[in-house]
Amino acid sequence: MPRKTRIDAPGAIHHVIVRGIERSPIFKDDRDRNQFINRLGALLQETSTACYAWALMGNHVHLLLRSGLSPLSLLMRRLLTGYAQYFNRRHSRSGHLFQNRYKSFLCEEEPYLLELIRYIHLNPVRVGIIKSMDELAKFPWSGHSALLGKHKREWQETGFVLHLFHEKQTAARNAYASFVQKGIVIGRRPDLIGGGLVRSAGGWVAVQSLRRTKERFASDERILGSSDFVTAVLKQANEQYEKKQLLHTFDIGTLITVVCGHLHVDRALLLSPVKQRQVSRARSLISHIAFTTLRLKGVDIARSLGLSPAAVTKLAARGRSDPLREEIERKLLEGDMIA
């Protein structure tokens, strides 16, 4: 059977699993681990992607991410390709480092976010790398220690997670630590590794109950969540796919024409050092729509606007909240090139 396309959208939460080919190690020492998380951190910040949990194991990696400006697939391709090239050079090897495609499962935020954070951060304990919760609190190769304030990771979204437990930092860290501790007795959680009917329904017992009642339950192996969530995600994915197909023929030149026409901005000003409000707004809208809708690379957008990739990333974040964004996209779809 052909592989299904990945489902993604800005703001979507993904549990990502990366494994070494034939289960071989992907880290040989701390230098390798530092190289991986440094690359990860830089890409997360560049793309405004949030990381809520992570763990580096011997032959695999767990990440819990919320999609930002760039598609998850682009971030992961840059991360894994760059790291594999570094690893092969350093260890005088050739060939693939990672097993097939990485796995990613789109997750419903409630009730899975906190459960996945706990599951991922307990991985080192579960496999015996770490023997106690005290050791885990100091373990530098998972996000648990950052949430407890033992290691500083600028790119890890600790504030959001801690705020789910308490408004005050100390109380939040204590509550979080207690929550994770309770997960040890629960043991392995196969219901959290992947999507599909069995996991989304809550296990085989729940599935059998559904069958007895003949209740319909929407499911998809790419999604971990309730029936309503799965249905909504698939509907949105189909709409986004159709929209993407319609927009596929557009280039950034067309987008610039539409945005400048709507805002009555001379497109020549986009390449000038002018910082007028409407010109800045045009740059922000172009950057965001080019990133998220046209799926263009940051370097290509930057070249078209005469800016650095870092500047484009900041502008795209600003453009996300612009109320004109949807209207500009509609103009593109309808072929309306004038304001």
Provide structural commentary.
The protein is of the alpha+beta class and 339 residues long. It folds into three domains: 180 residues, Alpha-Beta Plaits, CATH 3.30.70; 44 residues, no CATH class; 86 residues, Chromosomal Replication Initiator Protein Dnaa, Chain: A (Orthogonal Bundle). Helix content is 53%, strand content 8%. It contains 16 helices and five strands. A five-stranded mixed beta sheet has the order 2-3-1-4-5, with helices on both faces. Helix 12 packs antiparallel against helix 13, helix 13 crosses helix 15 and helix 14 packs across helix 15. The longest helix is centred in the last third of the chain and has 21 residues. It is globular and about 65 Å long. About 8% of the residues have low confidence.
